């Protein structure tokens, strides 16, 4: 199978490239300088030329706070580029997998979000990602939208690596405790993406298409996530850290974050038989990888 994946250095892209080799899957990455998501139409010709069996729309504008002042470029990358990719997928008669986010929701639900819940993004980033979902669906029925959340991995920039870096110069940290979510490893996302790609490339069942939530099992707030990171660090011979839980009001940001980012993965489990590991187990795998490189 030949997979075209947008982006070259993102967390999910890197994880996909690492794991595809073990499965004998050929990966073609698409990004600058060959094509630029900020210029969506530049994507069409290279995708057609690559002739993939499945397209994975993984790259995105992910600077959540910066998007508040760079709405135009965020909309081009997150809102319009996925539609161009989906148009190319339809022309090639192949499926497209599009990675989306918990930020499409307002975050005011008291329970886990399901795919049919009403969207209501509260940030430019969330709005542009919702536009991307809508653009993909408008271009082709042969699509799978995968909403994930709180992504981290042994590579790239993410919360886990930030916490470990800050611990090098501090003994305690204030971390927000009134935002709930499902910390999800890019390693786990990549495994699921490859499995889903193989399935949809050979199975035309409509039940395998549409929107699905792809997050780790369990839940945590950011302070609990940080505490688990530092517990893992200490278990691997690193220093102990104190985490002081604080409300979001004490850590203001340009973009409003959803208070509830918990996504239910039940629909994915039923359709594909895929259930990601509990986040604590995936975090342990990530920390093992990070500390083995030290």
From TrEMBL:
Its cofactor is Mg(2+). GO terms for molecular function: dTDP-4-dehydrorhamnose reductase activity. Binds 1 Mg(2+) ion per monomer. Residues 1-289 form the RmlD-like substrate binding domain. It catalyses: dTDP-beta-L-rhamnose + NADP(+) = dTDP-4-dehydro-beta-L-rhamnose + NADPH + H(+). GO terms for biological process: dTDP-rhamnose biosynthetic process. Catalyzes the reduction of dTDP-6-deoxy-L-lyxo-4-hexulose to yield dTDP-L-rhamnose. This is dTDP-4-dehydrorhamnose reductase.
